[in-house]
Design brief:
single chain, mainly beta, Neuraminidase, six-stranded antiparallel sheet, about 0% helix, about 35% strand
Length: about 475
C-alpha cells in the first residue's frame, strides 16, 4: 500500500461550518478547490456568504433565500392527460437535458417496489418486467419552466435510484436491488442499468438491461467521454461492503445503444485497504490503484461484491453519488455515511473521493465528520445526491432524519442552507418521507431542478444565483 498524506496548507484546507451562525451542526474537512474546479464552467469557488437566511414559504412547501422562487413541475398522483396513468410515487435521481426550443427535458427515476403507493404503468412495449413497479418518467419544460408534457419512458424495472448522463445525451437509470425472478412478484432478474432517451420515446421500446455492466445494487454512474469507460457505485447497506467498479465497453462512446455491445466489468482493488471508511484524513492519496475482473457480472450464485476475486476488492458503505470532472478528467464518488454497527470500521457522515485514471490514484477530498459523543444529533446529516453549481461549490441533497435541506458550500468551505422542505419530514420508515434528491442545473445555469421523494414533487428554482452576499 502506497499512501501519501497531504500536508501542504496551500493545497489542503481544513474548515468547520459555523454552527452558531448557520445553524448547521456539521463539520466539513478537506480540499474543496478540486471540487470547485472539476468542471470548466463552474468558476473557482462558491459564493462568499451563501444567499442569506431562508424565508418562510407562506404556502408551507419550500423555504428559499430572499429573491429565489420555485415552480412545481410535477406532483405524484396527478394525471397529465385524460386516459393516462397518474404520476408514479417515489421521486429519486434525475437527469437534466437541454431542449431544442430553449427549455429542458428531465428524466426522473421512480424508486418503486411492489409496495409503492402509485406504481409506474408503461405500455407493454416499454415494460421490462410486468411484475415490477419502478421506471422513469420524462418531463418536457419550456423556457419559463412550465411543464408542457410528461410521460412514462420506462416501466417494469425495480427500485430506480440514481444514474448518470452520457455524452450523447441519454440517461442511464440504475436499479438499486439484487432481487431475482420469483421474488416479490418479479418475472425477471433485477439489478441492472437501462438506457433512456429523453428526446425520442420510440427508442425506449423493448427495454434492454445492460447485463455486462453488472447486476448489483446500483446507485450512480459517470462516463469518461474520452475513453468511454463507465464508473459505477454500489449502494450496499448490508455486509459485505459495496464496491466501486469500472466498465470497459466494447464500443466506447458509440452513441445510443452502444453499451448493449457489452464489455468487461472490473472492481477496484487497493493493497491493504479493504474498507474506505478507515481513511479519515483528507488529502490521503493511494497510488497504483488496480482493477480486478468481476468473475460473474450477472451474480448468478453470489452477489458481485461477495465473489472470489483474484485480489480482495476495496469496499465502502453506501457508495452513492458519482460524477465526471471534465476539467481535471477525474471521477468523483460519495460514500454517504458509515456506521460501525452496520459493518464499516470507522464512523463518518460522508466522504467525497476522487479517482484519477491517468495517475491511477485515489484521494480523499472531503469528509463530513460526526458530532462528538454526547452531543445532539446534527441538523444536517447523510449527504446523498451531490451536484456542482455553475457558480462554484457543491450543492448537496440531505437524506437523513428530521428536516431535509439542500445545502451549499461557500468559497471558504462553510456549509449554508439553500432550501428547506416543508411538505414532509418523516423517517425512511415513514411512507411520507421527505428526502431530497435528483438535484441538477439547466445547461444555461439559470434553473436548478430537484425532487422531494415522497410525496413526490419536482421543483424548478430560479433567482439571483450570481449574487454573492
Amino acid at each position: 500500500m502506497s499512501v501519501e498524506p497531504q500536508s501542504n496548507p496551500l493545497s489542503r484546507r481544513q474548515f468547520v461550518a459555523r454552527a452558531a451562525a448557520a445553524g448547521v451542526a456539521v463539520s466539513v474537512i478537506g480540499s474543496v478547490e478540486a471540487l470547485y474546479t472539476a468542471e470548466p464552467a463552474l468558476g473557482t469557488s462558491g459564493p462568499k456568504l451563501g444567499y442569506g437566511p431562508l424565508v418562510e414559504d407562506p404556502a408551507g412547501m419550500l423555504d428559499l433565500p430572499r429573491g429565489f422562487s420555485y415552480k412545481v413541475l410535477s406532483r405524484e398522483g396527478t394525471v397529465a392527460k385524460p386516459g393516462t396513468p397518474p404520476v408514479p410515487s417515489r421521486f429519486d435521481g434525475m437527469g437534466t437535458f437541454p431542449d431544442r426550443h430553449g427549455g429542458n427535458r428531465l428524466v426522473r427515476n421512480h424508486e418503486c417496489s411492489p409496495t409503492a403507493k402509485i406504481k409506474v404503468v408503461a405500455p407493454p412495449e416499454r415494460t421490462y418486467d410486468p411484475g415490477a413497479a419502478g421506471g422513469t418518467t420524462t418531463i418536457v419544460a419550456d423556457r419559463h419552466n412550465n411543464a408542457t408534457s410528461e410521460y412514462v419512458s420506462l416501466g417494469g424495472t425495480a427500485i430506480n435510484c440514481s444514474g448518470g448522463l452520457t455524452p450523447w445525451r441519454t440517461w442511464l437509470t440504475c436499479e438499486e436491488t439484487e432481487l431475482k425472478a420469483g421474488t416479490s412478484g418479479y418475472t425477471k432478474d433485477h439489478g441492472f442499468i437501462f438506457e433512456v432517451d429523453p428526446y425520442d420515446n420510440r427508442r425506449n421500446r423493448n427495454p434492454t438491461p445492460l447485463k455486462e455492466m453488472g447486476r448489483f445494487q446500483h446507485e450512480a454512474v459517470a462516463l469518461d467521454p474520452r475513453t468511454g469507460i463507465v464508473y459505477e457505485t454500489e449502494d450496499a447497506f448490508v455486509a459485505p461492503l459495496g464496491g466501486f467498479y469500472r466498465f470497459l465497453p466494447n464500443r466506447p462512446c458509440g452513441g445510443w445503444g452502444s453499451l448493449r455491445a457489452g464489455g468487461e466489468l472490473e472492481a477496484m482493488h487497493i493493497d491493504g485497504l479493504p474498507d474506505l471508511s478507515v481513511v479519515q484524513e483528507p488529502g490521503t492519496t493511494f497510488h497504483n490503484v488496480q482493477w480486478v475482473k468481476v468473475p460473474d457480472p450477472l451474480a448468478t450464485t453470489e452477489s458481485v461484491r461477495a465473489q472470489d476475486y483474484a485480489k480482495p476488492i476495496t469496499g465502502g458503505y453506501k457508495l452513492e453519488g458519482c460524477w465526471w470532472g471534465a476539467l481535471d478528467r477525474c471521477v468523483y464518488f460519495v460514500s454517504s455515511f458509515a456506521r460501525t454497527e452496520l459493518g464499516p470500521k470507522v464512523d463518518h457522515d460522508g466522504q467525497v473521493w476522487r479517482y484519477d485514471p491517468r495517475k491511477r490514484t485515489l484521494r480523499l477530498e472531503v469528509i463530513f465528520t460526526r458530532p462528538k459523543p454526547g452531543s445532539d444529533d446534527p441538523e444536517f446529516d447523510a449527504p446523498d445526491n451531490i451536484t456542482m453549481s455553475p457558480y462554484g461549490g457543491l450543492m448537496m441533497c440531505e437524506d437523513g432524519l428530521g428536516e431535509q435541506h439542500i445545502l451549499g458550500t461557500t468559497e471558504d468551505g462553510e456549509v449554508f442552507k439553500f432550501a428547506r422542505n416543508r411538505v414532509n419530514n418523516g423517517t425512511p420508515e415513514d411512507p411520507e418521507y421527505g428526502e431530497l434528491a435528483g438535484a441538477g442545473f439547466s445547461a444555461d445555469g439559470r434553473t436548478m431542478f430537484f425532487n422531494v421523494y415522497s410525496p413526490g414533487i419536482t421543483y424548478a428554482i430560479t433567482g439571483p444565483w450570481r449574487r454573492r452576499r
